[in-house]
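Input sequence (332 aa), recorded before submission:
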Amino acid sequence: METGDRTELQSFLKVLPPVDFCCVYGSALHPNNREKSTMVDYILGVSNPEQWHSQNLKMNKNHYASWMAHLGGAKLITEIADEIGVGVHFNPFVTWNDKMFKYGVVRMHDLVQDVLNWERFYLSGRLQKPVQILVDNLDIENVNSANLRAAISAALLLLPPKFTEEDLYAKICSLSYMGDLRMLFAEDRNKVKKIVQGQFDLFQLNYKPFLEEYEAKEFLRLASSGSHQKNISQDCGLSAARSLVNSLPPMVRSQMGMKLGEKKKLTESGRIVSEVLIGSREEAAKCMQKVLRRTVMVSSTRQAISGLLTVGAVTAVRYLSNKMCKAWKSWR
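Predicted structure, token format:
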């Protein structure tokens, strides 16, 4: 990203209370996309959301739904995000400096847990796609490497023996949309394709180390295709499938173990770990897909209800209508 663009994105943070983490995601990262959103999307990580919202209400009360600002305050905003939603409060349609913004505020502990364990598979899914990190006081970029490795492992389990690099990134991108109810009526049917094609170079940059790692382990074979991407073939044997499952987050492995069974195993470092019992690659892929789909369905539903409560009916209808217009256009 150009220095000028980064500086412009950072300038919005000056009107908000300090944050420990900030990244920009979405169409702001691929300027060649003709379907650029009118809003610039941010994720903000803070140590204490209630304290942060209390300060932000004093600075930017107009960012919140009026009833929340006047009747509920920071405590209710945080409680709804935690108890009804998935720990994230979004303020959409924020106008500043002739531009429109949307920002989601999350507790740093919850962000780290989702990145490492896919407990909600919400923000972890966002961070599997390209983002521009603007503030990173706790080195989330490094922590997120485990999330990226898990994402490529999950995608490989769902892909055939041979595929293209674009197929791989599309499968990674689609993981966090499996089970998302919005995809049925309120999202562009070509959303995944547009994200991957619009940000292909950024996907390559993010996942190159893991492709090289898996190639070195002989799980993958990469071949140039004469274009900007590679053709990939993978080892579909049971041993390779077990290694891919072992790279999935603990929460996913635990739920797969409950369905398929598991055994205790002593590692080289002397730790006792649980290993999922896999009868076949197909069985593992099907089980993992069910786990992820259910997680996404629950999280997307909870967040939708939370958003409806916190942003107010008028703003919620406005946001949903914008989404549905894009969806309907994609079906024409």
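Checked by second reader. The two ends are 33 Å apart (CA to CA).
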